[in-house]
Amino acid sequence: MQYGALCWRVKNGRRQILLITSRETGRWVIPKGWPMEDRTPAGAAAQEAWEEAGVRGDVASVPIGSFLYDKVMSRRKNAVVSLRTRVRVFALKVRALEKDYPERKQRRRRWVSCSKAARLVREPDLAALLRAFEDA
Q1: Containing domain of residue 44, as a range?
Q2: Cβ-proximal residues to 70 (8 Å cutoff; 6+ apart), any chain
Q3: pLDDT per residue over 87-122, tens digit each?
Q4: What is the mean pLDDT of residues 27-54?
Q5: What is the pLDDT of residue 97?
């Protein structure tokens, strides 16, 4: 189980989602990571949003949904070892987007509409969650 942050803002009366690139493949994802001993699930999601995207904001205490993806654990010459992983997603209203954050040199970030975010991500369940969030 991992915890993810659906980072959002309202611009021109419409919700926008902040997507980031994964470090290995460059695909568009949301900030996410493993549980942390000293944090609640929502707190872990907020911490990942800070480390991976430079986001400061208000995180919801209850998840808005979840999705499955294949987490690559190791790559070898002729094999990829992956683990099917569920991500519980917490909405995080962005108050500030910092320029200086831990993974700034490893990722790109991009604001997009909910519908565009749904088209950019590869995980079908995450895409469905993004489409539902637009209408919520």
Answers
A1: 2-135
A2: 82, 83, 84, 85
A3: 999 999 999 999 999 999 999 999 999 999 999 999
A4: 98
A5: 98
- DSSP codes, 48-107: HHHHHH-EEEEE-SS--EEEEEEEEEEEETTEEEEEEEEEEEEEEEEEEE-SS-TTTTT-
Chain centroid to CA 121: how far? 10
Provide mean pLDDT across the span 24-42: 96
- Record the tokens describing residue 124, joined without a space: 């079908």
**Residues 49, 100 contacting (CB under 8 angstroms):** no
Average pLDDT over residues 8-32: 96
CATH code, domain with 108: 3.90.79.10
Based on the structure, what is the number of domains in the chain? 1
| Kind and range of the H or E run holding 6 | strand 2-11
Contacts by residues 57-63 (CB-CB < 8 Å, ≥ 24 positions apart): 57/7, 57/92, 57/93, 57/94, 57/95, 57/96, 58/92, 58/93, 58/95, 59/5, 59/90, 59/91, 59/92, 60/90, 60/91, 60/92, 61/90, 62/90, 63/88, 63/89, 63/90
